[in-house]
Amino acid sequence: MTTDVFKDFLNKKCIVRGDRSGVLYGTVVNVAGNTVLMKNARRLWYWDGANAINELAVHGTSKPHECKFTVYVDSIVIMDAIEINRCTEKAIKSIESVAEWKKAKD
Predict the structure, then answer these.
(1) So where are the chain's domains?
(2) Among candidates 80, 90, 97, 105, which has minimal Cα distance to 23?
(3) CB-CB contact of 59 with 94 (8 Å)
(4) DSSP of 13-69
(5) What is the Cα–Cα distance from 37 to 40, expressed in whole angstroms?
(6) Quick one: DSSP state of residue 104?
(7) What is the mean pLDDT of the chain?
(8) Would the pLDDT of 105 be above 80?
């Protein structure tokens, strides 16, 4: 059950920091305590061109070719969320321009 404090984040593209699960980008669908359901999400494993998640959520990355953002998954549940940052349109375009970081095909 999502509370009103999260209403501005629902169905918006956000960056979520998990205590142990890492940093993920995607559309926040539901929030219940520390549990966040995201759709069309990818892990932001490494980034350059932004000092912190806050800057990444506002400006995106100035070095998209240096970033390691994983493939997208249809949905993911993060059960250790400690921070949610709503992304600006500028950041969304920047983050989504980063090529998927994945294992080379055999």
Answers:
(1) 4-97
(2) 80
(3) yes
(4) EEEEEETTTEEEEEEEEEEETTEEEEEEEEEEEE--S-SSHHHHHHH--S-GGG-EE
(5) 10
(6) P
(7) 94
(8) no
Which pLDDT value is given to residue 18? 97
pLDDT of 47 above 70: yes
Q: How many CA atoms lie within 13 A of 19 on its CB side?
A: 6
Q: Is the pLDDT of residue 10 over 90?
A: yes
Which residues 6+ apart lie within 8 Å of 99 measured at CB? 64, 65, 69
CATH code of the domain occupying 4-97: 2.30.30.100
Query: Is 0.90 surpassed by the pTM of this model?
Result: yes
